[in-house]
Amino acid sequence: MKTLDLLHRWTGGLIGLVLAVLGLSGTLLLHRDAWISLPHASDEQVQETARLIAATERLMADPANRPGSIVFASDSLGLNRLSLGKEAGAYADQTGNIITQWSDGWQRPELFLFDLHHHLLSGETGETLIGIAGLCGLFFVISGSILWWRTRRTFRFRLFPTRFSRPAILWHHRDLGIVFAPLLLLVMFTGTTMIFRPVTALVLGLSAPATIEASFKPPEATYGPLAKNPDWAAMIGTAWQRFPDAEIRILSLPREPGKPITLRMKQPEEWLPNGRTTLWFAPDTGQLIEARDALKLPGAAQAFNTFYPLHAAKVGGLPYRLVMTLVGLALSLLGSLTVWTFWFRRKPPRRPVPVKVTVPAE
């Protein structure tokens, strides 16, 4: 038990600050659509065929400045988001008018927070570090629950330490951690699986990673170059013929020559905010290559599709979002106070050495 306690403290001291940053940035991102203050951000979502096609054709009209992808407006944000290459992008209203543009993600607070939470502003290196932090977080929750069991009779729930002394912070850390342990375990696991997909094997079985990879893999055939004026109306019309109850969520152009155009849809039964029902179209002719129904994917793939909505509170409405807000704040508090007590704790005052007084004999 002493070894487990030592590992728990040292790992927390080394990685606690990363978890605190992830907890705070994730909490802010839970409410991202609510605090984006732009014209038309609060417009009602439009999924009417003619208007959606008209906006798409307008945004895609200029081949020289055509966006690489369009994330269409949702029920929580009334703006289309355009990708204009690398970190550049724009928001447009649902008629196709550009509202604002940026050339760097740092120019938009929600994009800065997204990069911080997903990459620690360091690209793939930061993403790997986050994955390691997530694995450490899983260890913290499990080991912390084991260590708490010894002191369970002294449990007392408190949002903040009674005082900022090391003993008080340690008791607060143990009791607050055990209260949020189940949800912290959920957050750590779902977040880690999105970086290290083999982690899904812990819950979904050893064959799950390969099944998931195959389920999301696009068609491998090579096609002609992207047409100058693809028939967007025909593609969108075909998509709605196949899935009449679904929303059009993302339209993506090929990233490489010969690859297909991708159209993602969200069916009412799907939890993913952008859905995983996917259609691929030939870039030169616009003909449908393949349509993949997310509700008919293998069980492991369907289960994996629930991880992100659970992690980012994209299901359950406002009540679940508020619960996950508390979880994010708790993670921030646990991580930051752990680092503080581990690296900056004050040394206990030295006890005075008793002085032996000799009484001279008379």
TrEMBL record:
The chain crosses the membrane at residues 12-30, 129-149, 176-196, 322-344. InterPro entries: PepSY-ass_TM. Keywords: Membrane, Transmembrane, Transmembrane helix. Pfam families: PepSY_TM. This is Putative iron-regulated membrane protein.
